[in-house]
Amino acid sequence: MKLLTLVFMFLAANLEAASFEEATKKLASHASIEAIKYYSKAEMASSDQKGSWGDPSIKLAFKNFPKDNLSDDKSPMTGIELSLSQKISLTTKYGNYKNASKSKAKALEFEALDSEKKLLKILWETLVIRKKRNKDILILKENFNFLKRKLKISKKLYANGKISQQALLELQIRISQLEVQINNVKSELLEISDEINYLVGFNNISEMSIPWNLLSKINKKKNNDKDKMFKQKLQASEFNLTASRQDFIPDLTFSIGATKRSNIDDNGDFLSASISFPLPFSDIKSANKNKAINEKYKALKEYDDYKNRKKRKIFILQREIKKIAKELAILKNRTIIYAKNSRTITSKSYGLGGASYIELLQSELKLQKILLQRNRLEAKLDITKVNLKYILGEPLK
Predict the structure, then answer these.
(1) Domain ranges of the chain
(2) 395 CB contacts (<8 Å, ≥6 apart)?
(3) Cα-Cα end-to-end distance for the chain
(4) What is the CB neighbour count within 10 angstroms for residue 373?
(5) What is the distance between the alpha carbons of residues 64 and 165, in angstroms, rounded to a whole number?
(6) Alpha-carbon distance 285 to 253, whole Å?
(7) Which CATH number applies to 18-55+93-249+285-392?
(8) For 138-165, what is each residue's pLDDT tens digit?
(9) What's the pTM?
(10) Are 263 and 269 in contact (CB under 8 A)?
């Protein structure tokens, strides 16, 4: 009856909880992800500015008016000039600056996608730990109930003079220690709930909706946004370097104008045109080029370092998965079976007055440690699989 009640309570709790799919959708709108997305949009918007030649300039000038009466008919040089000037580039450097900014914006887009996957990885890890701690509670409660039953038997044995009062006290001490352990695990579960709430905005994710089988599947479909992010950063640095080299060819400023005169010399109005450009003699352009060169090599070395670390990390994680799986197989197929048999035999012997309370507590504690170790290894294996999938770019939802 108790088992049925627990089953119904579990089903009711899962029906009220949100699904794993709903939780993953919430990650895309997490504040940390939204911040990167807005940064990307801002960088994309600035690309048009960096690719522009600038606005044309209109100039209105009142030229050579006598200071005494400001008359326009005393000098043939007096007039009102209206001119238009525009900066013109002889190279494609502004297009390269624009492309560099766009590549940086795309790099930020991929960074946002990778950050979302990082949050998904953290969510997985948190749910794995939650699962482990819930299983730990079941083990501790089972041990608690086991010792409570043995305490009843011990009281009868004590009444018959077969065990000492010390045996009763040791059992009660052990039971109280288990109560403390259970309370500590419950506190940890509350902290885990807070972490889940921070990630997705609610803390009650249905255990049944979590696709645990996904962790054991090898998915050939890979999409590594971090790799794409580094590629875009490298591309941005290459565009910047090309633009900095082109910057040694100066921009021309072309200007045309017309001067309205009083025409006292019968020569009509004046027209003018001019071309100007800066001489690249300062250290500004060479400094910009040197900066761009170093930034390119920095991006290149960062990408190389990322690829090397990724390759090494994949090897370590794959080796770790094999090691944990082997240890778990030995634990489940042999160690746990031996420990359960040992506790059963010792328990029966204790009830018949054969085994001592020390042997009983030792067998109980040993089984508990082994079962908790199994939970720890299972959680470690799942977390390692999650990390490997994240690094490989395999889907986690």
Answers:
(1) 18-55+93-249+285-392
(2) 214, 219, 221, 223, 389
(3) 37
(4) 15
(5) 119
(6) 18
(7) 1.20.1600.10
(8) 999 999 999 999 999 989 888 888 888 9
(9) 0.84
(10) yes
